[in-house]
C-alpha cells in the first residue's frame, strides 16, 4: 500500500539542500509527495488534506537539528504527526472494560474479517494476561460451521464455549450466554456475532437486538486492515448503527502498511485497540501508534537517526554544564536544569526505579515526599527569582526570600531547603572540579 512513500520522500529529500531552517518551499515540495502517496494508499482526501496541513504548520520554520538533513527532519515531523493522529487521546489501547462480572464483549464485523479468530485471541489474552474466566459464544446461526470453529478454538486455547443448541435465534443465544456466564461465575462473556460479506439491514438489526439484550461493556469492530478505505466505510456504518467502542485491525502482518489505520482513526475517532498479526492464537498485539507510524513511512531508521541527533544535542548541553561544574559553578539556573531533567526522566521515583537494586528506595523517596510535585514546586521557586538572584543565590536576604516564596505560593522554609540543596551541590561540584578533568563527574556522566 505505502510501498512508494519512502521512495518518493527520499527522492524529494535528496534534492533538498542543507540549510539552517526548513524553508517553505522545501516543506511544500516534500508534503506534496506525502499527500499524493497518502491518496494512492487509499487514505481519504479530507484525512490526507488535514494531515498535510498539520505537518506543514509544524515543519515550517523549524530549526534544523545538526547532523541531519532538512529532508530527514521532515520525515521525523511526518512520523510524529502520524503517531499523533493514530494515538488520538487514547491512553491504554490494550485495556478492555471488563469490570462488573460478567462483562459482555460484543464482536462485530464482516464475514472473513477475522472476527472469530480475534474472539479466540482476545479470550486467550484475557485469560492469560488478565486472569479472567471467559466464556465464548457464537451467534452465527446461519453458518453451523462458524459455531463449530469457535468451539474448536476454545478447546485449543482452553477457554469455555457455550454449548451449541440448534434452532435458537441470535438473541436467544445471547440471553443463554448471559445466564450461563452469571451462573457459572465467569468474568467475561464474548459474543461472536454473525458476519456477512456486505453490510445489510437484517444483519444490523440482529446485532442491534443482541446489543440491547446484553448491553455490552465493549463493542469491538473487527476489520481487515488490508481493505483500506472499505474498512473505514464499514467502521462508519457499524458505528452509526450499533455504536462501537473500539477497532481491531487484522492482517497487519500482510503487505498493507497501515494506511487503513490512519483513516480509521481520523474518520471514526474510535480507538484502534489491537492489531492482528497472523493466524495463530497469540498473533495479537496492543495497538502501538509509533510502530504503525514507522510502518506507514517505512523509514524507521531515519526517525531513529533524528532521535539520536537530538540526544547528541542534549549530551552537548550536559558537556557544557560539566565544564561549569569543573569550575565549581553551580547556581540556581543549573539546579533548575537538573530538576527539569529529573522530571523528564520520570521524577525521583522514575530515576531510582531504573537503577538496579533501587526500586525499593524509590518507594521511600515517594513516601518522603520527594516526588514530582516537590520537584515542580522547587522549579516554581526558582522561576520566582530574578535573573540576578538565580545567578547569585547568596544575595537572598529575608525580604527577597519572602517575595520569592510568596510568588511561588510556598513558604520561606521551603525556599531555605532549596537554598541548602543548592549550596551542598555547589560545594560538591567544587570538590569534584578539583579532581580535575576526567575525574569522578566525568565518570559518573558516562
Ligand atoms: P470471520 O469470518 O470474520 O470470523 O473470520 P475468521 O476468524 O474465520 O478468519 C478468516 C481467515 O483469516 C482465517 O483463515 C484466519 O486464520 C485469518 N486471519 C484472521 N486474523 C488474521 C490476521 O491477523 N492475520 C492473518 N494473516 N490472517 C488472519
UniProtKB/TrEMBL annotation:
State its Enzyme Commission number(s).
Answer: 3.6.5.4
Entry GO CC: plasma membrane; signal recognition particle
Q: Which UniProt keywords apply?
A: Cytoplasm, GTP-binding, Hydrolase, Nucleotide-binding, Ribonucleoprotein, RNA-binding, Signal recognition particle
What does the record note on quaternary structure? Part of the signal recognition particle protein translocation system, which is composed of SRP and FtsY. SRP is a ribonucleoprotein composed of Ffh and a 4.5S RNA molecule.
EC main group: hydrolase
Query: Where is it predominantly found?
Result: membrane
Q: Name one GO biological process term.
A: SRP-dependent cotranslational protein targeting to membrane
- Tell me the leader sequence span: none
Q: What is this protein called?
A: Signal recognition particle protein
